[in-house]
Automatic annotation (TrEMBL):
Keywords per UniProt: Kinase, Membrane, Transferase, Transmembrane, Transmembrane helix
Taxonomic path: Bacteria, Pseudomonadati, Bacteroidota, Cytophagia, Cytophagales
The organism's place on the tree of life at top rank: Bacteria
Organism listed in the record: Roseihalotalea indica
Name of the protein this chain belongs to: Histidine kinase
GO molecular function, a single term: phosphorelay sensor kinase activity
InterPro entries per UniProt: Bact_2-comp_sensor_kinase (IPR050640), HATPase_C_sf (IPR036890), Sig_transdc_His_kin_internal (IPR010559)
Signal sequence extent: none
A family per Pfam: His_kinase
Residue ranges annotated for the Signal transduction histidine kinase internal region domain, each copy included: 165-243
Keyword field contains Transit peptide: no
GO (cellular component) term, any one: membrane
Residues passing through the membrane, by range: 12-34, 46-67, 88-108, 128-147
Length: 349
């Protein structure tokens, strides 16, 4: 924001508060505006009201924003309402009391030392009443804005899920994957019938998982790992020892992930990198600090790339941000490609 815009914003803010302060004084003591004797008191009263407007309005806005960064209206509405109400009213009362004390001492009292404490408290009653209205307005406004934003994000997620489901549907009938799988199966049938039977079962497991879970928002990590293991089994029949996948994730890890997210990352690594006797591809899946699920592979890009829409990783990023307010991390160095997915503590839909 440029200096001119900041100056203009502050000018408007101060002007609005001055107008509100003047309106309050006019409403409470209109006689001061129509007598010469009242002009001195009028200036003091407007200055008092203006100070209250600035301190109460600005302070309450700051507190509301500070609480908002820690407690969400959407996820914890009751807790947010209680915290907002207590914090804003407590601040308003203490601020009103302090301002009343300062102005009585400096402007309103002839003998400040003789003013009893109940006068300060009574003087703070009116600002506190205004603060109650202000608190109600800020709280209601915050809730409505959060609800509106949540509705927008939900609609956005719905659109992205449709896009994701379309991508998943295309991947289900991906002619390359299906052709390669059937081609490998053809060889296995003659070479190793037991392995061929296992291959058919794993292929069925892969497609069953996709069909069963593509509509869900999250799935248990253990189920996604089993799905990836089945997918990797099929790929290793094709690439043999040239594809090395290490999954170092405890089976009982109590966490959730987006369905097909790990498989997509493994598939991307296979799709975009050279896999050969001279340049085997190493893919690692492991946990980092019990907060992130890491998928890492050595980088050896193909000279000619298969077509990729690029929507997969972008879609995963958007869905993670919506579900958990956490961002995935993508690190692309000269030798490695790393994606870190935050672990989720949500219930499957």
């Amino acid at each position: 924001m440029t200096f001119k815009r900041k100056l203009r914003r502050w000018t408007i803010y101060l002007g609005v508060n001055l107008f509100i302060a003047t309106a309050i004084v006019f409403f409470l003591t209109p006689r001061l505006f129509f007598s010469i004797e009242g002009w001195r008191d009028l200036v003091d009263d407007i200055l008092y009201s203006f100070t209250l407007c600035l301190v109460l309005g600005g302070g309450n806005d700051f507190l509301n924003a500070w609480i908002g960064r820690r407690v969400s209206w959407i996820h914890h509405p009751t807790k947010r309402f209680i915290l907002n109400t207590i914090a804003l009213l407590t601040y308003s009362f203490l601020a009103s009391l302090l301002i009343a004390f300062i102005f009585i001492q400096l402007f309103f009292a002839n003998n400040p030392s003789e003013v009893p404490w109940h006068v300060y408290v009574e003087t703070a009653y009116l600002p506190l009443g205004i603060a109650v209205v202000l608190t109600f307005f800020i709280t209601s406004r915050g809730f409505l804005l959060s609800w509106r934003q949540a509705a927008i994000e939900a609609e956005k997620l719905k659109t992205e899920r449709v896009s994701s489901q379309y991508e998943s549907l295309k991947n289900q009938v991906n002619p390359h994957f299906l052709f390669n799988s059937l081609n490998a199966l053809t060889s296995l049938v003659y070479e190793d019938q037991d392995q061929a039977a296992k291959f058919i079962k794993k292929l069925a497991d892969v497609y069953r998982y996709v069909l069963d879970n593509q509509q869900k928002e999250v799935v248990p990590l253990s189920e996604e790992i089993r799905f990836v293991e089945a997918y990797v089994f099929l790929q290793k029949i094709r690439f043999e020892d040239n594809l090395q996948v290490s999954i170092q994730i405890p089976a009982d890890t109590p966490a959730m992930v987006l369905p097909l997210s790990l498989q997509m990352l493994v598939e991307n690594a296979i799709k975009h990198n050279i896999i050969s006797d001279d340049e085997p591809l190493h893919i690692q899946l492991y946990l980092e600090e019990d907060e992130f699920l890491v998928v890492k592979n050595n980088l050896q890009p193909k000279t000619s790339h298969e077509y990729s829409s690029g929507l997969g990783l972008k879609n995963i990023r958007s869905r993670y941000e919506y579900l958990s307010k956490k961002e995935i991390s993508v690190l692309n160095s000269e030798n490695e490609f790393i994606v870190k997915l935050p672990l989720l503590n949500l219930q499957p839909a």
